[in-house]
Amino acid sequence: MTAEHDGNHTTRWGVLATGGIAATFTADLRRMDGAEVVAVASRSEASAKAFADRFDIPRAYGDWAGLVADPEVDVVYVATPHSAHRAASGLALEAGKAVLCEKAFTLNTREARELVALARERGLFLMEAMWMYCSPVIRRMTELIADGAIGEVRTVQADFGIPGPFGPEHRLRDPALGGGALLDLGVYPVSFAQLILGEPDRVQADALLSPEGVDLNTGILLGWESGATALLSCSVTARMASTATVTGTAGRIELPGHFFAPNSFVLHRAGRDPEQHTVESPLTGLQHEAAEVMRCLRAGETESPLVPLEGSLAVMRTLDAVRERVGVRYPVDDYPVDS
Asked: 141: Cβ–Cβ under 8 A, 6 or more apart, which residues?
């Protein structure tokens, strides 16, 4: 299905799920030229209708099947908890829809490989909603690093933590729902490090586990054959600064709190005053990733060069390795984990 159906390049979105991130994304889409939210789905008809009324969406479905079968939908935004990403994205791809799937992409690498294979088999667009990769500030940072502004990268440091507390009934404590700090929060530091250095050659980790067996507080050390290292952490028990630093042989780049959605960064180089870099853009928040999806669809691309599928698979492999090291196993996993 083309996103150029009416001659003016309007992309028609279907939103699958009605939680907080779905609401944020929908609100951002409604402020964009060339984007139209035409349908929403939930497992609850009442929830779907309430969401549709809130955002003036024409059609509401009380099941996922109705949304993916809607001929007016060009692309499905999957905003379910990550435990349902494989099922929801797979259903949309099977129905011939392009898909933007929230992060973490899936619960494990096997599920991610299945989605990528399905999209490629069908010739359909698929992208992980790693909005950080689409940020013009992050893109400018990576350009400077590639141009040698800080020399050869030696270390990456990043953290992301929220204080909780989360009770035993919360999804973040449920292994079946992909609970723990790693997939909700740790995916950002890991994705940040791999954006700069690629997939690591070595993975070490340690964690505090909940009685249910999910990670509450996790430290990660990644290593590359180049000698570069990344020291990363995530937590659902402590409010971290959520900053990031990239240090090279000739300088460093510092990103402030909420490093994954920065407004600016500071470049430090020996013998020079600190340089603050900002990038002006008419887009905000999640609009950058939505714009990239729509650009790809209009260009007939089935994969984004900003958020490549091989990169999403590489991040999932690292997340799996971290869970193996710390002893976190989800019911869908097909590998043993040391206790």
From this structure: 246, 253, 255, 265, 277
